[in-house]
Amino acid sequence: VQLQASGGGLVQTGGSLRLSCESVGSFFRLDATAWYRQPPGKEREWIAGIQSVSNGGTTGYAGSVKGRFTVSRDVANNTVYLQMNNLKPEDTAVYYCAADAFRIPIIPFRCTKGYDYWGQGTLVTVSS
Fold it and tell me: Residue 27 pLDDT more than 70?
């Protein structure tokens, strides 16, 4: 399984972007897919996650993005999206998607252990 993240770019404060994370070569279902980001000079942080449809399709967000970012899944196209609205300069980071083939809903999205598949990262730059 390979994850291909795309959609990053340069946007002004208050603008929007939609990131995509396509799973390629998946012959079995993936459970949770998460989004992480790593701002310049800082550690990687979890920001959002979505469960598989069979596990209820629940979503979760970090407080820093809740209400501004929305994660969704397109099952037919094996793609998970991250819609980012009202972007701020502090959202500037390299964004990564990650997937766990076996994650039951009781395990928090923010638990990094278990995400065996990672995308290559896509850079989002928010100018002030």
Answer: no
